[in-house]
Amino acid sequence: MSESEPEHPDVRENRGAIPEAGALGRWVDRGGLVFAAGIVVAMLILIQEVVLRYVFNDPTIWAHETTVFLCGVAFVYGGLYCAARDSHIRVVLVYDTLGPRMRRLFDIAISAVCAVASAFFAWAAWLMVSRAAFAPDGAIRLERSGSAWNPPYPGLVKIFLLLVMAALAVQFVVLAWNHARGRR
Questions:
Q1: Which of 130, 134, 136, 156 is the most exposed place for a label (fewest CB within 10 A)?
Q2: Are the C-beta atoms of 96 and 68 separated by less than 8 Å?
Q3: Which of 121, 120, 109, 110 is nearest to 88 (CA)?
Q4: Which pTM was predicted?
Q5: Under 8 Å CB-to-CB from 119, ≥6 apart: which residues?
Q6: What's the pLDDT score for residue 8?
Q7: What is the SS3 assignment for 134?
Q8: How confident is the model at residue 92 (pLDDT cuts 50, 70, 90)?
Q9: pLDDT tens string 112-150
Q10: Any alpha helices (H) in the chain, and if so which ranges?
Q11: Helix or strand or coil: residue 57?
């Protein structure tokens, strides 16, 4: 697009978290770089594993589980990241036909419903964490993979999911509140 062409009003440049996401959204947006780097690290680990396995016939026992863990936490974080940036997938058949006032009401209602849903998912994640992170006597004992290497990645992913779902519920409350106030 040239300098003289006006930007379409429905097209928003990639500028980070939307203003309605507040400080939490800005923090989540900056944190996205950490998880993007994790995906790059996972790719490097896989390249190393291919070389070790097929060139030197000496594979590792940790590469597969580590890359699954790194990619898994990145995808979990991606939901929170997209909510803060308002870049999630949505069906806009009705939304795009609405005027600004009705869009604002829809934004409030959608954010409130998503906050409740995220809170329920956080509760479900807590139920998983209570079994994956604590022994029956209350001692901390992370669930392990059961492989030859046996890292605590399953327990860590479940704890991370709980934290992200709780943060997502808070993020949607912030969005609903700021949409209701008409804050930009």
A1: 136
A2: no
A3: 110
A4: 0.87
A5: 165, 166, 169
A6: 44
A7: strand
A8: confident
A9: 999 999 999 999 999 999 999 999 998 999 999 999 999
A10: 22-54, 63-85, 100-132, 153-181
A11: coil
